[in-house]
Specification:
The complex is a heterodimer.
Chain A lengths: L10 E12 L2 E13 L4 E5 L6 H9 L6 E6 L2 E3 L6 E4 L11 H5 L1 H6 L4 H13 L15 H13 L5 E5 L7 H18 L2 E6 L2 H7 L2 E5 L6 E6 L11 H22 L1
Parallel strand pairs in A: 3-8, 3-9, 6-7, 7-8
Antiparallel strand pairs in A: 1-2, 1-4, 4-5, 9-10
Chain B lengths: L1 H25 L9 H10 L1 H35 L1 H16 L2 H12 L3 H25 L3 H9 L4 H38 L5 H10 L3 H29 L11
Classes of the chains: A alpha/beta, B mainly alpha.
Chain lengths: 261, 252
């Protein structure tokens, strides 16, 4: 189920550094973080909780300025990915005062592209993720899994090549999460998006990613990189899967000890 | 729902019954405390008088509330958009609230006259505070992540204000309106007490001077009905304006 990948780089981050001033002293959150993603590649970013993964995404999306380092999108240097990336969090961030349809169309509405094609795409995507019949419901009337699916549709409808997913399924139960994994993989393959997925769940990273970057505890820095060449759909009981998982857990062990003592 | 109405209704009826019996049994003079039956009689006999004065007070309250709403919401938006205005006006808004309206009522009558304007200003002064404070809080408390979501979309300042801050401030605005409308009667009545020749407040003073205590009670009933009616009107508008809120979250 893999498809040929080009050698061009969609997104590259080099030696990015970010510190915050806290009570008079400087706290380094990102320390010389580098990574790259090819077009259509699914990148997992694994690291202990609170290691600065969200800061990395805030820098990439333009919400926070980096101190040092370079970011390039399509081989062009940029200050940040503002306007070039879509960002999805653990919180679904659906607006309670909007129906599901108006929520998923938030991006096109802001950018002024409410064409018939876009609206048709929204209807199709909502049906695709099982939200048919709920288009005119308010978010509070939906289950947490359905809300997260709506958030995923909204993220896709931002029409950006790069998706930043910050532990998007962290709040879901195991069953719902596995459904979301399947939906995400299907849509990723159909839309050829470049995905960066932050997670602290090793299995999730292995199930989804083409490559996995390992981040250390704060300050976050790159600890290693693992290519997952298993065919999809992957199974957690596959012996190669189990071996890879063990390898990653060993690499992370030192970091986990730093965090949990 | 039946129990919700039944219990207070039974209590009220029992209270009225005790009142009626006590007044008859102890032969309380009607110019001290009239019996409920007498008040009902007044309600029927003086109906047109009561309705006339109620409309005067209602007009004062509605115009005063509308004035406070427009100025209050407008000022809250300006203070939110321009922090320098917040620093300038906010202490004054709070300061204005510490001055009792009773104390400045004579001045307002002096400046705005015996008619409608002085009562409108008085009601507006009381209603203004909860509306401006709640609206400002509402604009500020929008979920920062929701604001960031729009920033990532390169939304401009007005889009963020209109698509996130305004809708998320609505529950606060309506809280302010509900508090405001509940106290709005105070302003109108004080205004009428200090100087007027119309309205329920005037009618009560007049009845007091004539020892028509049952007319005071009748006026109070009309005033209460006005206040409660206006409160539920705000609740109805709130439900209409925020269809995404379940009705159980509103009004209780």
């Amino acid at each position: 189920m893999d498809f040929p990948r080009s050698n061009r780089t969609k997104l590259s981050i080099r030696e990015v550094e970010k510190s915050f001033q806290k009570e008079g002293s400087w706290l380094t959150v990102l320390h010389r973080v580098s990574l790259c993603a090819h077009p259509g590649e699914f990148i997992g970013i694994l690291g202990p909780s609170g290691c600065g993964k969200s800061t990395l995404f805030n820098v990439l999306s333009g919400l926070t300025r980096k101190d040092l380092g370079t970011i390039a999108i399509d081989d062009k240097q940029v200050e940040s990915g503002l306007g070039e990336v879509a960002y999805m969090q653990q919180k679904d961030l659906l607006f309670p005062w909007r129906t599901i349809r108006r929520n998923v169309l938030l991006g096109p509405e802001v950018s002024g592209d409410m064409s018939g094609a876009t609206q048709g795409e929204a209807e199709r995507l909502m049906a695709r993720v099982g939200l048919k019949g709920f288009e005119d419901h308010y978010p509070t009337e939906l289950s947490i899994g359905m809300r997260q699916r709506a958030a995923l549709v909204r993220t896709l409808l931002l029409h950006k090549d790069i998706l930043l997913l910050d532990e998007p399924f962290g709040a879901l139960d195991a069953m719902t999460r596995s459904v979301m994994h399947r939906i995400l993989l299907e849509l990723w393959m159909e839309y050829h998006k470049t995905v960066l997925l932050v997670t602290h769940d090793v299995e999730e990273a292995l199930l989804l990613s083409d490559r996995i970057y390992l981040l250390t505890a704060r300050p976050a820095t790159m600890r290693g990189e693992i290519t997952v060449s298993l065919p999809r759909p992957r199974r957690v009981v596959d012996s190669r899967f189990v071996n890879l998982k063990g390898e990653i857990l060993e690499l992370l062990q030192g970091e986990l000890e730093k965090v949990f003592g | 729902m039946t129990k919700k109405i039944l219990y207070p209704a039974v209590l009220l009826l029992m209270g009225i019954l005790v009142w009626e019996l006590a007044v008859r049994h102890m032969q309380v003079p009607h110019y001290i405390l009239p019996a409920p039956s007498q008040i009902v009689k007044t309600l029927i006999l003086r109906q047109s008088l009561l309705i006339h004065h109620s409309f005067v007070t209602l007009e004062e309250i509605i115009v005063g509330f509308a004035l406070a709403f427009v100025v209050g919401v407008g000022l809250a938006f300006l203070m939110f958009q321009f922090p320098v205005l917040e620093r300038t006006f906010y202490p004054m808004v709070i300061g204005s609230q510490t001055v009792p309206v009773f104390a400045i009522a004579p001045l307002l009558v002096l400046w705005f006259g015996y008619g409608l304007p002085s009562k409108v200003v008085m009601a507006a002064l009381i209603v203004f505070f909860p509306i401006v404070v709640n609206t400002l809080d509402g604009l500020k408390c929008a979920d920062p992540d929701a604001v960031n979501l729009l920033r990532i979309l390169k939304a401009n300042r007005w889009q963020i204000l209109w698509k996130v801050r305004v809708p998320s401030s609505l529950p606060f605005v309506f809280s302010g309106c509900k508090i405001g409308v509940s106290v709005s009667t105070i302003g109108a009545i004080i205004g009428e007490w200090v100087g007027s020749n119309e309205g329920l407040g005037y009618l009560m003073l007049h009845a007091n001077a004539q020892m028509e205590i049952s007319l005071i009670f009748a006026s109070l009933l009309y005033l209460t009905a006005l206040g409660v009616g206006l409160f539920y009107l705000v609740v109805l508008i709130e439900r209409w304006a925020m269809p995404w809120k379940k009705s159980s979250e509103i009004g209780s």
